[in-house]
Amino acid sequence: RIYSGNIASSPYLVLRVRRNNLIRDATIQLQNARLENMTEDGGDDENNMYFKKPLKIKFEGEEGVDEGGVQKEFFQLVVAQLFDPLYGMFTYNENTRICWFNHKSISTDEEYELIGIILGLAIYNGVILDLRFPMFVYKKLLGYDATMEDMKEVDPELAKGFQKLMTFPGDVESTFCRTFTVSYQAFGATHTVELKEGGAKIPLTNDNREEYVDLYSKWYLQGSISKQFEAFRKGFMKVCGGPALRLFRPEELHLMICGTEDLDFEALEKKTQYDGGYNKDSPVIKNLWKILKRFNLEQKKKFLMFCTGSDRAPINGLGDLSFTISKNGTDTDRLPTSHTCFNHLLLPQYESEDTLEKNLLIAVQNCKGFGLL
Q1: Is 164 helix (H, G, I), strand (E, B) or coil?
Q2: In the chain, N or C: fewer CB atoms in 10 Å?
Q3: CA–CA distance, 298 with 89 (Å, rounded to integer)
Q4: What is the arithmetic mean of pLDDT over 315-343?
Q5: What residues does 260 pair with on adjacent strands?
Q6: What are phi and psi of 98, to 5 degrees?
Q7: Which listed residue (99, 240, 258, 341) is catalytic?
Q8: Cβ-contact 340, 371 below 8 angstroms
Q9: Using an 8 Å Cβ cutoff, are 99 and 136 in contact?
Q10: By three-state DSSP, how is residue 337 classified?
Q11: Does residue 73 come out as left (phi exceeding 0), alpha (psi in the -120 to 50 range) or beta?
């Protein structure tokens, strides 16, 4: 039994998890936290003070005290696993690089609730997550209604199809031969959903196509994922629910969770610390900053992903990021490496700027995003 102890009296939210059973262990302990908290204060999720504590992570069988790095690694591992398309909870659009709720998923409510809790805990603990949600997810969390602009972001191809339907000059009924239904394949079977009562018997026509697009969009963005999203929202509200949440705009909520794309590398240079024999005047360090400053935006994002596990900056910019560069041997053919959970770059002492740039580009361009050391 991993979970034990009087959680109400602890100043920290402590999770003891096994790497080979990460999701289940985290889910069970967070559910137990809620149950014990209910006996303390009646169980109002939006006033659940238990989750509003600094998070400490202990990986079973591993030594070490969590000073922030282990916590960050935990977030990265959970997000990587739950958002993996093979896990089935979310779909991923290669073109837009956006994740969306999988309405065909067989994942449990507890798993979607866990994602909501993780987002809330990330905000509370100041951890930036590498999430690819559309802005509409944050709008939904704040109670905003869906618009066609949201559809364009979530599924551009479907939105484009709707636009073609709305502007089609010919006879819609005889050309499209559709009714007020949506059909999709899941687990070897075809499922059909009526967009309104009796929709299977209502043909799509020029006169009712606007209603069809409206109902289809609402089903796609809301109805089809209502079960999954409600569990996700429930988890998020356990940590962040309350009157203060209503003060935020969706864009601000997104920034708190995912950080900003405004990458000021001069601010990062001023804040960076050095170890292992390097200082700001070391030749290899001077060469590194020269190279980074002439990187384009995509290359800078890849460098940040390689070093921190996220291609974004904290909400207040890169000047707010704790970043360390350490010496990792003398000039060698070895590539730079990193400890993403500590924002720590391990850089060999390359003798030439060309060698440094070549090896750095190889390292960052082949970064998978969760290559933790």
Answers
A1: helix
A2: N
A3: 28
A4: 89
A5: 313
A6: -115, 140
A7: 341
A8: yes
A9: no
A10: strand
A11: alpha
Two tokens, residue 331: 């000039």
d(CA 311, CA 318): 11
Q: If pLDDT is split at 50, 70 and 90, which confidence band does 7 have?
A: very low
Q: State the pairing for strand pair 98-101/90-93.
A: antiparallel
Tens of pLDDT, residues 130-152: 888 999 999 999 999 999 999 99
pLDDT of residue 197: 96
Query: Could you give the maximum distance between any two Cα atoms of the chain, in Å?
Result: 76
Is 341 an annotated catalytic residue? yes
- CB 130 within 8 Å of CB 76: yes
Q: Compute how many other C-beta atoms are within 10 angstroms of the C-beta atom of residue 35.
A: 10
CA distance 71 to 38: 26
Q: Do residues 191 and 234 lie in contact, with contact meaning Cβ atoms separated by under 8 Å? A: no
**Which residues have a Cβ under 8 Å from the Cβ of 18 and sit 6 or more positions away?**
2, 25, 59, 60, 61
Sign of the torsion angle spanned by Cα atoms 352, 355, 359, 365: positive
The pLDDT, as a whole number, for residue 32 is 79
Task: Match 């100043």 to its residue by tokens.
Answer: 11
- Quote the radius of gyration of the chain (alpha carbons, Å): 24
For residue 336, what is the DSSP state? P
Burial of residue 39 (number of CB atoms within 10 Å: 0-12, 13-18, 19+): exposed
* H-run or E-run covering 183: strand 181-186
